Amino acid sequence: MVSxxxxxxxxxxxxxxxxxxxxxxxxxxxxxxxxxxxxxARTNPWYSLGGMWYWVWILVILSGVVxxxxxxxxxxxxxxxxxxIQQNWRWGPFPIGSLVRGLHKYGADAxxxxxxxxxxxxxxxxxxxxxxxxxxxxxxxxxIIGMYSGLTGYLLIWNQRALWATKVMATFPxxxxxNPGWIPGGTLINWTNQGKTTAQxxxxxxxxxxxxxxxxxxxxFMLSFIPMIFFELRVYRRGFKRMNINHxxxxxxxxxxxxxxxxxxxxxxxxxxxxxxxxxxxxxxxFLAMYHFLKLQDPYLATVxxxxxxxLVLTAMFLDRRPERxxxxxxxxxxxxxxxxxxxxxxxxxxxxxxxxxxRDAPIWYFSMGGFLLVGYVQDWAxxxxxxxxxxxxxxxxxxVAFILVCMSANTLYHYFxxxxxxxxxxKAEMPKVLAQLQLTHPLATSDQxxxxxxxxxxxxxxxxxSHKGPNKPAGLxxxxxxxxxxxxxxxxxxxxxxxxxxxxxxxxxxxxxxxxKAKTARA
Amino acid sequence: xxxxxxxxxxxxxxxxPIVGGAVLAAxxxxxxxxxxxxxxxxxxxxxxxxxxxxxxxxAALSELTEPWDFKEFIYIRKSVEYSSRKIQGAKIPGFVVxxxxxxxxxxxxxxxxxxxxxxxxxxxxTFNFVKSxxxxxxxxxxxxxxxxxxYFACPCHxxxxxxxxxxxxxxxxxxxxxxxxxxxPRPPRTMxxxxxxxxxxxxxxxxxxxx
Lengths: 524, 211
Hints:
Chain A has helices at 2-13, 15-29, 38-43, 49-70, 75-87, 96-124, 133-155, 160-171, 186-191, 194-203, 210-238, 247-263, 288-295, 299-319, 331-352, 358-388, 397-417, 425-441, 447-457, 479-523. By secondary structure, chain A is mainly α. The longest helix of chain A is centred in the C-terminal third of the chain and has 45 residues, at 479-523. Chain B has two domains: 3-45, no CATH class; 56-205, Rieske [2Fe-2S] iron-sulphur domain (Rieske Iron-sulfur Protein, 3-layer Sandwich), CATH 2.102.10. The radius of gyration of chain B is 24 Å and the shape is elongated.
């Protein structure tokens, strides 16, 4: 423990130098379009994703530049200019405008599909290890940029879907002004209205209007071009081949996108009307899962989580510190990846079928997410015990699994017995009976009053809040206190044990170095 | 600690004020991204949309005689804009609903009406006034308890508001439109109104939200 603290202190002093060396190594290894996987790409199609991805990007930019000539970025003409591109721009029997637009739209979809597949390939094969963190970061960043480019792009069509998706997206940041007081710096953010200001910077005003279209047009352009400029500079300096695929593969990709554009002309929807929100209203396919996620959350939490998900993925990447890249030796991270995929598909399915119940579904999803992690932890635990020949209590996994179990139990208890009246299943079952009783004497009694009666007279129904002075429960056994003590205890003991082991390992490393140096001098 | 580490440490320490100065200089440029530029300290802390208080007639009492009669309207809220126009008109859709007598205070004529902004306080969609319980159950995932009455319901994330019930909101007092289903955090934003010469007149709106 003491030697661990000493090592920590020394490490902090040397942090800038260490970080610079770390950064330089990764910067040199950074891989943009799988250009360092030329050999693998010949036999394994998974490694030609990077090249295809760059190729599709070029197609989208080219078709976009052509569309820019005909598109009019003004609210009352945008929709009609798209209509003209789609219908009137023909060459004999060939609908050229429709094809160019289809190429742009389906090319963008292909960009997102390829970027997603590439991120998953890197995740599942542990490619971000051994100094390749930046390659993964760039791949993930480009996926996010692609999604935001899509979001800013489909407002330009100025149809209903675009308008309402933009509205939802622009209202998001306003929740950042509602930070609870215990978040450090939260009050300052609230006080200076950073969230509202962000929303207004995005929209160019307090509402979606002409300024919004201009700004989104600019963002749409920038999001594609600025990364491209940086990439080209790197290509120029390093002199590598951009695409690791042959011309036939390029032609095939182009042909597939063109064939889809011919068979399914890009949809246009109905013109935007800020006074009517159609029911149902959905976003583009890659945001569907996120959109469903919003239905299951308190909006502040949903906003924070939506912003935090990419950062959580990056954090998870840095937690995966072992050098092993084999599938069976990193089960936690496999399960995180599988979970992401499963939730993406399941949530998209649910929202398309209009299935959403905040009270019924949310705990199921939280619990299953915890379940995914738990399965991964237990598998990994078994692997670590086998690898190191250790007993279960000697491995660090004890702390992770305990933490997940406490989180899951807290979540479940909160949702089923918590202080939100309509989520508390016990209280909800009792309420109609009480309401019927109350209505015998007071015909205007409401369910609110029934809940109040229940809270006063049957505090045992609410396990989360009322146990402190409840008639049957001793004080000091409130559930949240138990959970907080468990969390803090796990964190503190985990940190203590971890620091001690780390210090011991560092000591051993230093001793080995010293012994080596001593042997050298002795030989000399 | 080597000579090299010390030099690097000094470099890092001296670069902090330089980077800070650059950020300050850039902030002057970035300020103009903000559409409603207000100068001084006020510009730092004031909510950027300063809702204007223009007065607008939206409905006549003769249109709202029966219980649950409603009218949708558009209120133009004026706010400052950083452009040659200096002013921006945000269209705020609204609802005025005539409440049945059992939910009103006979001494207060204004309590007969619920006037709200139609912008869902969740993520800004325009919500609807849904009268049929079948539509509520089918389209909005909410089965209203008997005796049933109309609700406000938002198609985007299926929040449902009960106009007959009120909730306490920070700094705003009791507001009608308690959330009974869905993820919305609070009742719809309000509009202040008066009844003058048999007409309903909007005198101002609660800020926040995206029009």
